[in-house]
Specification:
- It is a single chain.
- This protein is an alpha/beta fold.
- The protein has 2 domains: 56 residues, DNA polymerase, domain 1, CATH 1.10.150; 305 residues, Aldolase class I (TIM Barrel).
- 31% of the residues lie in helices and 16% in strands.
- The chain is built from 12 helices and 13 strands.
- A 9-stranded mixed β-sheet has the order 3-4-5-6-9-10-11-12-13, sandwiched between helices. A two-stranded antiparallel sheet has the order 1-2. A two-stranded antiparallel sheet has the order 7-8.
- The longest helix has 16 residues.
- The relative contact order is 0.13.
- The N terminus is likely disordered.
- The structure holds S-adenosyl-L-homocysteine (SAH).
- The site of S-adenosyl-L-homocysteine has 18 residues, from strand 10 and strand 12.
């Protein structure tokens, strides 16, 4: 395999900050972006988009409302309030928005209820499956044509859905395909929830492979990871309302366990603190990817606002408030962030903040279109993991699913092919 010569544009490894940590002599690749142009602000820094561009609002949906608001809305339609619960049962328990299936409701009001409270939100454009059928990537079109993806994965004993929280992403991380396209808009609460309901429907119909037993009627998504498109904490209120619907008991919500829901962030520090104070014990993941500001400034542009230490302090605060062990995500990129001294520095920074509060999930980089970076070598991965474990930090290499269908972490982006498929359907 020939390597792009520019990818080898190596400079000496930036000196590790502490005397006892020594550079190992491995090269230091800098995160230059090629194959695409990183958007810059007026001062020439990578553009960060926090505000959602204004677009037509998605139609209001049952899942956007609290149980009380649902009753009011049903009354507004001129119907008795108790119909709200019946409708919620269809949606959150039977995963249906199809009036024809709601046989417990008088035929003449079904259309009215469905039309008023269960408008279509996600149109399936495309579905890709792995050979074994145990991983499925959905491409959805939203009401305004924006495209988002979710990825459904069966593991032994659990079914995980990776959901999107924004169409596109404004965080501009150069190694993530989603960030390269910029932020289209925030997703609504119901658009987030609907991804789960649609996945549950497919599972109940037996559409998710990888299991021998024939009866799928009791199966459903057990775990959610906010690791699809978007920065969940940049769409805070809608994401939290979606989480509330996920954990509310059926039929008010999906009756899921908060612990099975992972919120992953690039490190929006004030929002992490707010999340810690919510009193909903979701699992928290920080996408760190570098323990030193020098490199993280370039890998995670939001590091220009909140530095490594601030992000780690916020993660520690999350642990203190919730008692939930925090995950540190770390994509291992060859000669970029996988140096042994960085493993040591990471361990040191985590241990400084106490023991037993955190674990590290390194994940070999997944290829993204136009990217010149590659995943770390097996040896570098093992060494990285070993050093952290030796320092007392539980560390497990995460194996990502769905690479063959471009459904793995950092690979979710609407391609021109997707746009064409969507246009052909419209
Ligand atoms: N914006 C949030 C959630 C979406 S990304 C966040 O960044 O945490 C989910 C995870 O995939 C993050 O840890 C992200 O850093 C990681 N990721 C992004 N691009 C990747 C790539 N090319 N290979 C491996 N992991 C990647």
């Amino acid at each position: 395999m020939t390597e792009n010569p520019r990818a080898r544009e190596t400079r000496p490894a930036s000196a590790p900050p502490k005397g006892k940590l020594r550079a190992t002599g491995t090269p230091q690749v800098r995160p230059t972006t090629e194959g695409w142009t990183q958007k810059k602000d007026a001062e020439g820094r990578p553009l960060l988009q926090f505000a959602s561009p204004k677009r037509g609002k998605p139609p209001l949906h049952l899942a956007d409302l609290t149980p009380t608001e649902r009753i009011e809305k049903v009354k507004e339609l001129g119907l008795p309030g108790f119909r709200a619960k019946q409708l919620a049962t269809h949606y959150f328990r039977h995963y249906t928005s199809d009036a024809a299936q709601m046989t417990d409701l008088p035929a003449d009001i079904r259309e009215q209820l469905v039309g008023g409270l269960l408008p279509p939100l996600l149109t399936e454009v495309r579905r890709l499956e792995t050979d074994r059928g145990d991983t499925i990537k959905f491409l959805w079109r939203l009401h305004d044509g924006a495209l988002v993806e979710s990825v459904l994965m069966r593991y032994p004993g659990r079914i995980t859905l990776c959901v999107s929280s924004q169409a596109g992403c404004g965080m501009n991380c150069p190694f993530c395909a989603t960030g390269q396209a910029g932020l289209t808009r925030n997703m609504s609460t119901a658009e987030i929830v609907e991804q789960i309901v649609r996945a549950n429907r497919l599972i109940a119909e037996g559409g998710l492979g990888g299991k021998k037993a024939d009866d799928h009627s009791m199966e459903r998504v057990s775990n959610i990871v906010f690791m699809g498109m978007g920065e969940p904490l940049a769409n805070y209120n809608r994401v939290m309302d979606a989480v509330r619907s996920m954990v509310a008991p059926q039929p008010d919500g999906l009756g899921m366990s908060a612990r099975g829901i992972t919120v992953s962030t690039v490190g929006l520090v004030p929002a992490i603190k707010k999340l810690a104070d919510e009193g909903i014990p979701v699992t928290f993941a920080l996408s760190l990817h570098a323990p030193d500001d020098h490199l993280r400034d370039e890998l995670i542009p939001v590091n220009s606002k909140w530095k490594v230490d601030e992000a780690l302090d916020a993660a520690r605060y999350y642990y203190e408030k919730t008692g939930r062990r925090v995950s540190i995500e770390y994509a291992l990129i060859k000669d970029m962030n996988d140096h042994a001294w960085r493993a040591d520095l990471l361990a040191e920074k985590l241990n400084e903040r106490g023991r037993g509060w955190v674990h590290v999930n390194p994940i070999p980089l997944n290829p993204t279109p136009g990217s010149i970076w590659t995943s770390s070598t097996r040896e570098a991965q093992n060494e990285f993991v070993r050093r952290l474990n030796d320092a007392g930090i539980p560390t497990t290499l995460r194996d990502t699913r769905g690479k063959e269908i471009d459904g793995a972490c950092g690979q979710l982006v609407a391609t021109t092919e997707d746009e064409a498929a969507s246009a052909a359907m419209a």
